[in-house]
Amino acid sequence: MGTASLAILLLVALGGCATQTVENRKAEKPAVYQALSPEFREAVDQGKVKAGMSMDAVYLAWGKPSQVTQTGTWDKEEVAWIYSKMYTEATHYVGYRGRMFTGYTSGNYIKAEVVFRNGLVETWETLADPAR
After folding, report:
1. Which of 8, 16, 118, 122 is the most buried (most CB within 10 A)?
2. Domain annotation for the chain: domains and CATH numbers
3. Which of 87, 93, 89 is nearest to 104 (CA)?
4. Beta partners for 110?
5. pLDDT tens digits for range 52-82
6. In a 10 Å sphere around its CB, with 0-12 CB exposed, 13-18 middle and 19+ buried, how is residue 103 labelled?
7. Half-sphere exposure at residue 34, Cβ-oriented, CA atoms within 13 angstroms
8. Helix, strand, or coil here: 65?
9. What does the alpha-carbon distance between residue 38 and residue 36 come to, in Å, rounded to a whole number?
10. For the chain, where are the E strands, in sequence order?
11. Closest CA to 115 of 67, 82, 73, 74
12. Residue 9 phi/psi, 5° resolution?
């Protein structure tokens, strides 16, 4: 395979790994962004969530949630969007004959949660990274 072909293949592969940003999501849903009030547009631009925001506005600000839960009664419906984050932790230990080894563990933790009542943000919470 030639160098040019390899470079093109690498660019195509990396293009699929692009990180979603607020700007990407605004370009994906420009009508939703334009329909927001100036206060909510400013919050989205800063990657923040505010009470009263719609689900679409939260998607623009924070992206797709890792998990969605729903509860409801006859007079209200609550939907929670949970945002998880992955961590990797290195552990160093001494093995056979004093040789140093490194092991890795990884897992997920809840980074944030947004609760919607009847389609609008009622509460939200961001959590600190776990202490390691």
Report:
1. 122
2. 20-126 (3.30.1450.10)
3. 89
4. 84
5. 999 999 999 999 999 999 998 888 889 999 9
6. exposed
7. 5
8. coil
9. 6
10. 67-73, 76-94, 100-117, 120-126
11. 82
12. -60, -40
> How many Cα atoms occupy the beta-carbon half-sphere of 116 within 13 Å?
19
pTM: 0.73
Q: How far is 44 from 32, CA to CA, in rounded Å?
A: 11
Instruction: Look up residue 112 and give its two tokens.
Output: 């944030």
Question: Which residue, among 118, 128, 116, has the nearest Cα to 50 in the 3D structure?
Answer: 116
Distance CA 47, CA 63 (A): 9
For the chain, give the number of residues.
132
Whole-angstrom Cα distance, residue 20 to residue 25?
7
DSSP 131: P
Give me the pLDDT at residue 10, please.
41
User: Tokens for 2?
Assistant: 């030639």
**Structure token pair of residue 24:** 């990407």
